[in-house]
Amino acid sequence: MIYIFMGILLTPVVVLGFLSFTAKPPHNIGPNNGRLSDCPKSPNCVCSQASDDLHFIEAIVIPENCEEPLKRMREIVSKMPGATVIDERPDYLYAVFRSRIFRFPDDVEFLLDDAAGVIQVRSASRVGKSDLGVNRSRVEQIRARFHHANLN
Q1: What are the angstrom distances between the C-alpha of 140 and each of 19, 72, 135, 145?
Q2: 3-state secondary structure of 87
Q3: What are phi and psi of 148, to 5 degrees?
Q4: pTM of the model
Q5: Spatial separation of the C-alpha atoms in residues 152 and 150, rounded to whole Å
Q6: Which residues does 93 contact at the CB level (< 8 Å), separation at least 6?
């Protein structure tokens, strides 16, 4: 009886773990003509270039005194829990964040938009439909750290 109960409890854990490690990076990572990819219809993505309220989040404003904003962004992102920087270019930064328990991957992109004086941002979960607001919260944490770093 206890084995059946443990099997019922462990099955979702095993399935979630399997999903997190088999999730492949999306094919649409990277800038295309000065834009980041659109979010899917699911609510587990935010993007500063989205045209709908569900997915839209403000771009990160670059303070006037900030030199090399993507270098500063890389420093901030690389110190955050679960983050791994995957790609870094003069105008683009791509990192993967993995959740602590199930190691779910989220793809986070930053695109320097010098003309607008902002860093465009997109954060999307690879697995599942809902992220319980994790991507939006992460971008807001990054925004706060970016602006705090520029005050010093």
Answers
A1: 27, 16, 9, 9
A2: strand
A3: -65, -40
A4: 0.84
A5: 5
A6: 70, 73, 74, 77, 85, 87, 109, 110
Amino acid in position 131: D
For residue 80, what are the contacts with CB-CB under 8 A and spacing of at least 6?
Answer: 97, 141, 142
On whether the CB atoms of residues 119 and 35 are closer than 8 A, the answer is: no
38: Cβ contacts below 8 Å, ≥ 6 apart:
47, 49, 50
**Residue 107: what residue type?**
D
DSSP string spanning 91-121? TEEEEEEE-TTT--EEEEEEEEETTTTEEEE
Q: Which residues contact 39 (CB under 8 A, 6 or more apart)?
A: 45, 46, 47, 50, 55, 122, 124
Residue-by-residue pLDDT tens, the chain, 152 positions: 665 655 565 454 444 444 444 567 788 899 999 999 999 999 999 999 999 999 999 999 999 889 999 999 999 999 999 999 999 999 999 999 999 887 899 999 999 999 999 999 999 999 988 889 999 999 999 999 999 877 66
